[in-house]
Amino acid sequence: MISDIESRLKSKFPDSLLNVVSKDKRITFSVKKEESYPILSELKDIGFNHLSDVTAVDYIDEQEFELTYHLWSHQEKIRAIVKVRIPRESPTVKSVVGLWTGAQIHEREDHELFGINFEGNPNLLPLFLEDWEEIPPFRKDFDTRKYVKEKYYLEEEGYPVVKG
Amino acid sequence: MDIEEKEIAFLTVPFGPQHPASGHFHALLKVDGETVLELEPHPGYLHRGFEKLMEYRIHPQNCVLVDRADVLDPFSCELGYANAVEKIAGLEIPGRGRYIRTIMAELGRILSHITWIGVLSMVLGFDSANKIAWGDREKILRLNEIATGGRLYPCYLCVGGVRRDISQEFVDETSKALDYLEGQLSFYDYFVFKNETFVMRMEKVGRMSAEEAIDLGATGPNLRACGIDYDVRKDEPYEAYSKVKFNVVTRGEGDAYARSLCRRYEIAESISIVRQLLKNLPDGPYRMELSPVWAAPEGESYFCLESARGEKCFHVVSDGSPCPYRVKIRAPSFLHTLVEFPYLAKESTIADIPAIYWSLDSCPADMDR
Q1: Which of A80, A151, B163, B345 could be B39's S-S partner, Cβ–Cβ 3.0 to 4.6 Å?
Q2: CATH architecture of the domain with residue range B11-357
Q3: Which chain A residues touch B338 with a CB distance below 8 Å?
């Protein structure tokens, strides 16, 4: 089954698959950003009807975000993982809400914590943070410890005092 | 009726955010009389940013920290994190360690489900069942204390195995507690699950079809109540699950009552799993010796497990340092509360809202992380 999926995608998207790894009922694709939506849509048609998660990782040294879509097929009981690299400067990618309704909330979270824009997602309002004015907090250039020290502590008489 | 009059006719009613009923979760209900037109969830009361905090800490610290990401089923978080890190490094955990972890994971599932019986009964106005369930919960908490020293947060698991071995006292007490809980199950059947009022409140409430459930990202008992037999323990066996026999409990109705029965029968399956594991518990070491500042090699892994609430996954990226580069927790409650709950709440009545919410068995700590 996994080799069928691999050959089907390779014949359909010969230029967009950067890397394919298949191991123990799991198949991982690294794909180009431009073709990520058609590839995900094809995987949905193949039978990957459960979107488990959409994870963002900030690779600051390479100035890129990596989005990982974790898919599961309830019929075939196999997992497909799709990795997409997007530039850190203009992090925009097409939303997959039209394919899986549950994607809405994963994308909303990634938008809030990483500042990634998902074109076509109907609701990208903040979930957790209130009146947040800093850069998105899960990015690697946001220093949680420094922020907490500056925002909540006063350096008085040599030891930190919580601002009250 | 013109638009102005219509706006007056709708009322906005808050649900939560306080115990009991919703926990640390707030929702705004737009209602027309008794009917809920729309539910707008407002999470964030328990957001502690664990995924970010873990980037600053080494693996043994993270195993302790991650407990707090799911208050009612903490062991699943430890198990997921440790397994994800071990997968990157390709560590082979000793057999005894694997068995002990599986035993603890199943006890955690029983603990979570029994707590859930209590809270669900309470929000339905059935306080006696709540008190009895919370009393029974103590049996498992006592076992946690014997094995780990902690009651609610075991902090028991470390990368490479478990922190300490289980004693003969634990084995004896577990057998006793399981016998007791098995007896209690038939009591719960008679007292709660076959109770006429309970059935009336739960049947045909918050119903979803299998296609809807899959599309909304439902997992765990909520999905299995719609007839889909997705259980990570069976489909991608981890720890010692391939060595035990158990059934995946499914129902076809997809309503709140079906979800309740799924959980009730899962307790029975978990009891059977723990008994099988205790019977075949292998001897030998229970963990590998690793230095506290042991660093996982460069790489990433995605590990899924079946927690009490559903599919819980850990995506860990390591850059070769003793701290992880990025941790992402796929929390089942995140989907249950923020996607399924608003969907099911539409067109239901205000009185059904707590029943639907707790039939999905969400944990706000798990949702916000």
Answers
A1: B345
A2: Orthogonal Bundle (1.10)
A3: 105, 127
